[in-house]
Design brief:
This protein is mainly α and about 210 residues long. The chain is built from 9 helices and no strands. The longest helix is centred in the C-terminal third of the chain and has 26 residues. The protein is globular and about 45 Å long. It starts with about 20 loop residues before the first helix and ends in a 10-residue tail after the last helix. It binds fe (ii) ion. Fe (ii) ion binds next to loops. This is DUF4202 family protein. InterPro entries: DUF4202. It comes from Yanghanlia caeni.
Length: about 210
């Protein structure tokens, strides 16, 4: 039985923890965390740590590429000129552009830190696929990212966007969860009862949400 999931939202001491026995990988992780700490999106530094936490909860033996990708997958959003939904015709096109640009940004950081070429290529692939999945490791990252939205991001997103938009986003997120992740979804609880109601509504027979 896994530990309760509502307590550690990945915003505390883990932000400086080593993620690998490899020094270059740890240098890259430190730089990624520095960039995210300056993000204009307030939930993003904690979301990165919380995504790593979910990854390791589902797959404790995850290697360096998955760990780096968990931290860096949303690094595109840390820019002042980050991509905006209104610049794209639909939500999925917007999300793919976010993933592709994030893969490039992360690769620059990994190269500067001296990370091995094979790990860099794997991280690039993982970040490009973090919204869609498509192979076992990308599916794992997508699940960790999705669970972290519900666990870590939901309160801030709800405070900023309101109930209706958060429910739309939550339905879109639930629809892409694997069966493995849906098991963990049912364990997520928030102190605010409205958010627990929203989580219940988001998975209530609306698996055809498109995110549009
Ligand atoms: Fe994310």
């Amino acid at each position: 039985m896994p530990e309760p999931v509502a307590k550690d939202r990945g915003t505390g001491h883990r932000a400086t923890a080593a993620i690998s026995s490899n020094a270059a990988v740890n240098r890259a992780a430190q730089r990624i965390r520095q960039v995210l700490a300056a993000s204009p999106v307030p939930e993003d530094p904690g979301h990165a740590e919380n995504t790593l936490l979910w990854l390791l909860r589902m797959h404790p033996a995850a290697g360096d590429a998955l760990r780096l990708a968990a931290l860096a997958h949303d690094i595109e959003r840390a820019r002042p000129d980050r991509l905006q939904r209104h610049q794209f015709g639909d939500y999925d096109t917007f999300k793919q552009a976010h993933a592709d640009e994030g893969a490039d940004i992360a690769d620059g950081i990994l190269a500067a830190a001296g990370v091995a070429a094979g790990v860099r290529a794997a991280v690039r692939n993982l970040i490009r696929r973090h919204e869609t999945g498509g192979d076992p490791d990308s599916d794992l990252l997508r699940d960790a990212d999705s669970l972290s939205y519900f666990d870590h991001n939901l309160p801030l997103y709800h405070a900023r966007e309101g109930y209706a938009e958060t429910l739309r986003r939550a339905r879109w997120g639930y629809a892409r969860l694997s069966q493995r992740a849906r098991h963990f979804y049912r364990q997520i609880q928030h102190e605010d009862g409205r958010l627990n109601q929203l989580l219940a509504e988001a998975c209530d027979g609306r698996l055809d949400a498109t995110g549009a």
